[in-house]
Task: inverse folding
């Protein structure tokens, strides 16, 4: 009896009901306050919460074509008083050969993008050649991973789609998340309704797709997966539009990336 009462006291101090055992809600409360503590089932709750925040952000997707890469994102104009040209975008240029689209907290994205630009320019200055795409992404993901391993920090609440070109691997498309993981993709979607966007991409994507077809596919996917409930009849100025960036090579003596944004 004494051992059971002592166990009950421990449960009470930890916020767990001894009659119902260690419920998932109580489990998450015990382990979600620190990014450096694993739960008994091997989860880092703060990283999962960051990914959940990204799931509520505006959607973005990338499509890899044989002659370029397309990045597209939905853009919400919430008021007729908003100066659209002066608001922060979801598309960013890192250097002449790399650009990215973001979903999540754009203030966090600005920190990482500025870091990526600095790393790319340092490499260019040191070696007199553009930095390989994957090498840059790996360095940024190492920084993101550090914020999940040391105390007193929170994960970056942003996910990236990187599009780029280098001489070795050609056109490339990468996705990274708050945990620091990254992977190469032929087509990928992040942000709101990303699951449904992924299913459409799986059905519609073709490896022989060209740049124009990739752009049409990106617009088609976003138009199908946009949250149209955001448009209210009483607010006719609240519009959903699509911004996109296209990457290809100019046919000149020196190869150079061409960035087109709309």
Result:
């Amino acid at each position: 009896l004494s051992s059971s009462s002592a166990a009950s006291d421990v449960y009470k101090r930890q916020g767990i009901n001894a009659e119902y055992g260690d419920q998932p809600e109580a489990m998450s409360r015990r382990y979600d306050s620190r990014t450096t503590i694993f739960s008994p089932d091997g989860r880092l709750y703060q990283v999962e919460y960051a990914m959940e925040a990204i799931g509520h952000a505006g959607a973005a997707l990338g499509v890899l074509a044989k002659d370029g890469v397309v990045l597209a994102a939905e853009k919400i104009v919430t008021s007729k008083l908003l100066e659209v040209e002066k608001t922060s975008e979801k598309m960013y240029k890192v250097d002449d050969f790399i650009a990215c689209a973001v979903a999540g907290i754009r203030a966090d994205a600005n920190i990482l993008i500025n870091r990526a630009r600095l790393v790319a320019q340092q490499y260019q200055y040191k070696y007199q050649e553009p930095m390989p795409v994957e090498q840059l992404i790996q360095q940024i993901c190492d920084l993101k991973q550090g914020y999940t391993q040391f105390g007193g920090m929170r994960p970056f609440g942003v996910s990236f789609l990187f599009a780029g070109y280098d001489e070795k691997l050609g056109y490339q498309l990468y996705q990274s998340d708050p945990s620091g993981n990254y992977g190469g993709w032929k087509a990928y979607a992040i942000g709101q309704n990303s699951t449904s966007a992924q299913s459409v991409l799986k059905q519609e994507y073709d490896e022989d797709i060209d740049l124009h077809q990739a752009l049409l596919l990106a617009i088609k996917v976003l138009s199908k997966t946009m949250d149209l409930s955001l448009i209210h009849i009483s607010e006719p100025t609240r519009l959903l539009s699509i911004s996109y960036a296209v990457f290809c090579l100019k046919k000149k003596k020196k190869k150079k990336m061409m960035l087109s944004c709309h």
The longest strand covers residues 239-249. The two ends are 72 Å apart (CA to CA). Residues 176 and 188 are 11 Å apart (CA to CA). The chain is about 35% helix and 25% strand.
